[in-house]
Write a structure and sequence with these properties.
By secondary structure, this protein is mainly β. It has two helices and eleven strands; from the N terminus they run E-H-E-E-E-E-E-H-E-E-E-E-E. The strands form three sheets. It has a six-stranded mixed beta sheet with strand order 1-9-8-3-6-5. Strands 2-7-4 form a three-stranded antiparallel beta sheet. The radius of gyration is 27 Å and the shape is rod-shaped. The N and C termini lie far apart (53 Å).
Length: 202
């Protein structure tokens, strides 16, 4: 099956849109001119910030997305051609800062289920599902960590004991990294007023 690629950098920058999952999906082998309903569910790799969207304009189809289950539900009896067009418009997006969850969820599996309308009298409407799957690979972007807070301006008196620069007060700095729970390294540098006897220690 075709595999779509979602790029965090391309698709979540200002003005970025979701990535088309598969524009060429077709509904074939049906003995019914109408479709009763359909779902597309993220069945593997779901994160709460995932989003599935379709375009339903010009059809009798309604769409709703449940972020908790990762399920996009299409309802309303309509023609096979209209359901096909709506499914072809499907896009995947992730609205968070870490779409791979620390590189542990680097892809999604989407399961499509389509139910015919039973118009031929050979079955019950909505009770004859057909399924298929499509994949979306996720390419993350490394967001830059940032120091937050106003910080303190302590005063050191000569011959005093070592001074703690950021003792955890309400004005202390904090470290924010939106897409990572671990930090490899950090540096603190005296960039102005350096004296040969100055010492920084942690």
């Amino acid at each position: 099956h075709p595999t779509a690629v979602f790029s965090e950098y391309t698709n979540t920058t200002p003005g970025g849109a979701g990535v088309a999952v598969v524009n060429g999906i077709r509904l074939t082998g049906l003995d019914d001119a109408n479709i009763h309903s359909a779902t597309v569910q993220i069945t593997t790799g779901l994160l709460s910030s995932d989003l599935l969207s379709v375009v339903t304009a010009g059809t009798g189809i309604s769409a709703s997305f449940d972020a908790g289950t990762g399920t996009l539900t299409l309802s309303g009896v309509d023609t096979k051609e209209n359901y096909e067009a709506v499914l072809q418009s499907l896009t995947f997006a992730n609205t968070g800062d870490d779409p791979t969850n620390n590189n542990t969820q680097t892809s999604r599996v989407l399961t499509y289920t389509v139910n015919d309308n039973g118009s031929t009298g050979a079955g019950v409407a909505g009770a004859n599902p057909a399924t298929t799957t499509r994949n979306v690979n996720i390419v993350p972007w490394n967001d830059t960590p940032a120091l937050t807070g106003a910080g303190a301006t302590p005063t050191y008196t000569e011959n005093d004991a070592p001074l703690t620069l950021e003792p955890g007060t309400t004005v202390a700095w904090g470290l924010n990294d939106p897409d990572d729970t671990q930090t490899v390294r950090a540096t603190a540098q005296i960039t102005a007023g350096l004296n040969a006897d100055d010492v920084l220690a942690a």
